[in-house]
Amino acid sequence: MRHTPFPPIDLTAILPAYAPLARKTVRLHPRSGVCGLDESKLGGMFLMPKDEPWPYDAESGFPLIPVLQLRIEDVPEIGFPEGKDLFQLFWSFNEILVCKVFWRNRSEIIEPLVKLPEDVLIEMEENAACYPTPCILHPERVIEYPHIFDIADYYPKLDEALESSKALKKAIASIPDLDYDEPSDVYQDLLSTADGTKVGGYPNWVQDPEAPEDMEYLLTIASCECDEATCLRWLPKEDRDNWDESVTNAANLMLGDMGNVNVFINRQHEDYPVVGIFQCS
Question: Which of 50, 116, 137, 247 qualifies as a cystine partner to 111, CB 3.0-4.6 A?
Fold first, then answer.
């Protein structure tokens, strides 16, 4: 289990108008390790029927690679369709990002696949930075608020209140560890969207928001779990004495220049199609 520290400032006590925007997100806290076929994981071998054709991107011909698998008992917040208890995200990260989701019932898989196809292994080796190495997950629920870019675009009055709040500036100045000049920087790094790979809540943008119309935010796959700017808030308590890449980048992902993939889903369509939005610095 991992525990995220409480924010250094009580945002809604100073700016109550932010309170209705609070959402729960599930930080997945991936850490290097191998677990069973049917367990929740980032990367590695997923539970799939032995006789099911491997998924490929129809346009490029590249195989789709296992990225994230979640069981309903571990992360019910993903929103499982009736009769399904296993979520799987695959993607191809070559010429363009292509994402595909599978919803499965574990009890229906009698003979599972136990070895990845050779061309999948080759693709994973040739583009290793785009595909996670196997990680065990440690789900944790925390409260977050919209990204500063979303605040600026969709809540201009709240953005103005954030920048002009004397009480917030006073609170920032009262904390020795906070070396910030702008309230918006404190908000983004320490009070808004959680860093790292997560499910639900708000998308963690790197550039301007690109949310697809008529789709809801589902999850984020991140290059790292936190960085020097955000570690004060988002580095778990249990990892503060051992802050290295085994914590911040256990999956060995490097999506562009420290990028994220925000995945969106259309639940109005019977197939629950998804779209991945890739952004990097």
Answer: 50
